[in-house]
Amino acid sequence: MSLNKEISHNTDKIILPSYSNKILYSPAKILINIWFIIFSVFCILPILYVVAISFSKELDIVTLGYRLIPSNISLKAYEYILRKPTLIINSYTISIIVTVSGTFLSLFLTSMLAYAISRKDYRYRKITSFYIFFTMLFNGGLVPWYILVAKYLHMKDSILALILPYTIAAWFVLLMKGFMGGIPDSIIESAKIDGASEFKAFFKIILPISKPALATVGLFNVLMYWNDWWLGMLFINNEKLVPLQLMLYRIMSNIAFMTSGVASTQVTALNLSDLPNESARMAMCMLAAGPMLFIFPFFQKYFVKGLTLGAVKG
User: Fold this and answer.
1) pTM of the full structure
2) Can you identify the CATH homologous superfamily of domain 76-313?
């Protein structure tokens, strides 16, 4: 009996590694891994080029073109952008406040609206869902919207003008509705039997279950608020409330104006190659996109899960 066990044990030792090797090193898996390695390299290379160009001299970019390794390292682009650091720091502060507060407010209202239209016992769920979807196709127009925000709501030169217009997005509501629609009704019914109110069931049960959807919509909101410069250009004239993206846009416009002015006039005192043009663009990309590059990996797991579940169950 012991001999049979030993033989079977040795047989398992011999067979299992070969079976696992066949799974790990099959041609299909090797090709898939090679494909994703190549795809990852093509995704990483543009970021490396942006970093390299931001530290390059403008003359080297004009004469030698874009290079992954700069011929001469220069900080002139960053010196030009950060020559008034208080403005950049203030713009960073405004963008952080708008992004954090806007994301939390948007998640709160979006999740409540999505939960309401996902409930099968809500009588007007179809009408409300169609109304939300209808706003994705048609809107009131830019001029009436501007008059509403600036004249009637009196939010011009207010930080609320950077937050409230993006609070509810129809696509985010429908995405979260698709996820919450897959939550069994028996969970809510059992919570009510135990004495939980509607709000307690929502905050204690629905929201913890909906973490993937919340992370997905939250990441979209973070990117939307952080990258926005349109609302600031429309409603903000106060320099203390200018967000980061609008500040960088103004800096880039100044560089373009100076470059075109020097090129169109016979000015010899200022060398055109000394003006950071392409390098300044890449430096601004690093200043604007840098925080998002660090935030995204923490949301990646929930982001992918939330997208797939919301798409299948919606």
Assistant:
1) 0.74
2) MetI-like (1.10.3720.10)
